[in-house]
């Protein structure tokens, strides 16, 4: 087996890296080409979507929920908790009344 010099080994390494990167670039180009082909086919097959009219804004309940007492909870966390509860219940937050929020630690 012939001995190679450090310079030759460096050239072989760079050539190997170049081949790998060229293969990765080719794979990326093929993937992008197929992606464009398939999305174009979907656009051609899909029927034209009907024009949607703007939906009326949901009715917002007037009023306030009163005073809220916070115990060991910062206002930002309390606001986040109230928004989550209102979202899960499917009601506007101003239709709910929160009396107090307390952090429970065990």
Commentary on this structure:
It is built from 2 helices and 2 strands, in the order H-E-H-E. The longest helix has 40 residues, at 6-45. It is mostly helical and 106 residues long. The model has no long low-confidence stretch (mean pLDDT 83). The chain is 52% helix and 6% strand. Strand 1, helix 2 (75-89) and strand 2 (100-102) form a beta-alpha-beta unit. A two-stranded parallel ribbon has the order 1-2.
Question: How would you describe this structure in keywords?
Answer:
2 helices, two-stranded parallel sheet
Task: Indicate the topology.
Elements: H1 6-45, E1 69-71, H2 75-89, E2 100-102
Parallel strand pairs: 1-2
From the spread of the alpha carbons, the general shape counts as elongated
String of helices and strands: HEHE
Instruction: Describe the sheet with the most strands.
Output: 2 strands, parallel
Number of helices: 2
Number of strands: 2
Backbone CA Rg:
31 Å
Give a brief rundown of this model.
The chain is mainly α.
């Amino acid at each position: 087996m012939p001995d190679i010099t450090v310079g030759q080994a460096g050239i072989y390494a760079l050539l190997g890296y170049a081949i790998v990167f060229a293969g990765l670039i080719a794979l990326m180009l093929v993937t992008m080409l197929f992606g464009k082909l398939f999305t174009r086919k979907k656009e051609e097959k899909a029927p034209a979507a009907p024009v949607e009219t703007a939906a009326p804004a949901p009715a917002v309940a007037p009023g306030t929920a009163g005073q809220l007492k916070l115990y060991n909870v910062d206002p930002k966390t309390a606001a986040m908790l109230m928004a989550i509860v209102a979202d899960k219940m499917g009601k506007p937050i101003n239709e709910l009344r929160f009396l107090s929020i307390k952090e429970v630690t065990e």
